[in-house]
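Question: what's this shape?

___
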Amino acid sequence: MLQHPAHCLALGFGAGLSPRAPGTVGTLWAWLAFLVLQHWLDAQQLGLLIGAGTLVGWWACTVTARHMGVSDPGSIVWDEVVAFWLVLWLAMPMGFWGQAVAFALFRFFDAAKPGPVGWADQLFKGFGWRGGWGILFDDFVAAFCTLLAIALWRFFW
């Protein structure tokens, strides 16, 4: 992880090294980090952080996947981090239980890859910039599905 700065970021500062469910651990890390960051950053700054995190993360995921020799390694969790930050940024304010539901929905869409998430997961494969974007893209589609479910829930209830 410490051999290259891209590895540290792509592996979620160590969250991706979890021997069990690294994607879930990475999403938990993202949740905690967001709760801490929102005390120092306003909504606009959080949005800029998510945008910058996406661009830098694209680079970090591309480099790390190439160095690992795997096109989409499970230990790369930066995709979960920025995608879940996006969910929280757009859905807040929510209490603990609302955030927990957002977490569960995001993990479901990211892990099970139903419908559009599965399509997105197959769209950009391989190494290089295209594959690096593919690592992130399916998680953004999972984030969109999560936000859609939350919006429908808020609309009908």
In short: The mean pLDDT is 96. The first helix runs from residue 5 to 10.
